[in-house]
Amino acid sequence: MAKIFIVEDDPKLAAHLDKIIRKYEHDTFLVETFDNILEPFQQFSPDLVMLDINLPSFDG
Predict the structure, then answer these.
(1) Which residues pair with 6 in a beta bridge?
(2) Containing domain of residue 19, as a range?
(3) What is the spatial distance between Cα 15 and Cα 55, in angstroms, rounded to a whole number?
(4) Is residue 60 part of a domain?
(5) Is 1 a domain residue?
(6) pTM score of the predicted model
(7) Contact criterion met (CB below 8 Å) for 52 and 8
């Protein structure tokens, strides 16, 4: 089981990704912005990061 950190500003898409990934029994952690993600990232310690390449406050 992998731990996947998802950074996605579209709540519907984030929820859809979360649902699909959890279907395969992986753990997910969702954030909507790139601001202040360092602490949750370090606590969750993900195996994979899915980063939206077109975030309003950060160019992925």
Answers:
(1) 30, 50
(2) 6-51
(3) 17
(4) no
(5) no
(6) 0.86
(7) yes
